[in-house]
Every structure is written in C-alpha cells, then in structure tokens.
Amino acid sequence: MSNGPDLSSLHVISATGIPVGVSHGAIHLAPSLSLARGRVHEIMGDSADVFALIAAGALEGPVFWTGLSRDVESLAPTGVQAFLDPARLVLTIGLNRGEVLWAAEQALRARCAACVVIELHDGPDLKESRRLQIAAEESGAVGLFVLHGRASTSAAETRWQCDAIPGGGWVWICTKCKRGMPGAWRASWKGRQHAPDLVPLAATASA
Asked: In Å, how far from its chain's centre is CA 85?
C-alpha cells in the first residue's frame, strides 16, 4: 500500500514459515512473506480458504484439494478464478476423515502436486500430521490444512488465523511458527498477477 512501511524493513515476516536447512525452498506470497515448501501448515478462520488459494496460486502445477463432499463441493469456479486457474484444481472427495487424510497423503507422495489442500473439521493430531509432514518432506510439496473447527497439537510448521476485515482485505495472524517469529499482518489482494499487499499490525500474535 502506498501509505505502508518499506517492505524491506519487515525482516520478521521474511523469517516466518521458513525452516532452516530445508532444501525445497519456499512459496513467496509477497516480497517479505514466505511459506516453506516440503512442510504442512494449518489455516483457520473465516478466510482460511482464501489464504490457501493465494498460496496455491503462487505455485505452478496441479493443486489437489481434498475434503468431505460438503467442503469440496462448495468451491465455486467463479470465486476460485480470482486467485487460481480452476483448471489446475484436482478435487478429491472422501467419505470420512480417514479417507480424506489418506488421499492427501497419497497426493503429497505422488510428487506431481505443487500443493495439497486438506479440509478438516478439527485439526490433525501429532500422528496424522507427522505422516503428512513426512510425505511433504519427501516430495517438496506444500500441505495446507484448512480447519473449520479446533486445532490440536500437531507437527505443522506454522498455524494461521485468517479473518476478513470491514472494507475489504484480511488479517493474517501467525500464531505458531516452529522456526521464526509469530506476528500479525493486514493483507489485500492485487490480483492473480501480483503478490498480496501486506502491512504489519502494531500488535504481534503470541506463540
């Protein structure tokens, strides 16, 4: 934003979500905000799906979106296309939580997916998240858990609370970061050919 601070000074954002020693690199959502590849991340809030679409849109290749029918079938092409070419989406519907997690793990292991989005009601536990974390590490893909309920203790690299704000845009709060500093940012969308516009908030989130 024209009235925002110099993004080069936002060193805290650049550290968020990038684990040390990972060779897969990162998704660059904006000049100073990245998410580690080869890792799984958790997203919560009323705009969690938007965060997932923006992250997936920053990558090239197929995007596997898995979940129960009530979640996956609610994706509208007209809404998706603002952030991501709908032709890149591979939708997978599971009959239960176990099938959703199994399909997501297979997609991550297949090495053909740039990103795998997993819609769940409650967050994965340590055992569930570790299996998908291992699969993501092997392939270098990004796993994004979109959670509609509560989060649990998990192996996820980061956890985000994403909510819409009046007047447009969102607040993205990183509440967990295994190798970096949590924080809070206001984001607005410039379009598919541009990165999100980010401004740090005065208050940072606690770990």
From this structure: 17
- pTM (2 decimals)? 0.82
pLDDT digits (tens, 9 = 90+) for 40-64: 999 999 999 999 999 999 899 999 9
Percent of residues, the chain, with pLDDT higher than 90: 47
In the CATH hierarchy, which fold is given to the domain comprising 7-200? Answer: Rossmann fold (3.40.50)
